[in-house]
Amino acid sequence: MKYYKRNWDESRGDEFDSWGKSIWYFETENSGLPTKQIEVYQNGKVLKYDQTKLEDEFGRLGDQELDLIEFSEFEITKKEFEKVWNEN
After folding, report:
1. pTM of the full predicted structure?
2. 36 burial class (0-12, 13-18, 19+ CB within 10 angstroms)?
3. pLDDT score for 11
4. Residue 64 and residue 71 in contact, taking contact as beta carbons nearer than 8 Å
5. Is 17 helix (H, G, I), strand (E, B) or coil?
6. Residues 3, 6, 43, CA angle at the centre, nearest 5°?
């Protein structure tokens, strides 16, 4: 597994645009396919997705492999990911 944290400096661009910018956390297979995903928004809203909750009215677990070269600079430890996962 690999773990990533990436800031998104743009808002959602949908009816939830007022949530503001966000930080996204991913746990992925070695291929880059997300197995867990957390989205933490400026307004405090947190979305979590995994195999037990693939989607809801706000979004869904990514179904495309992340570009591991592009994401390499955003890699974090499993411990950092799990801390955020377990706090939210």
Report:
1. 0.93
2. buried
3. 84
4. no
5. helix
6. 120
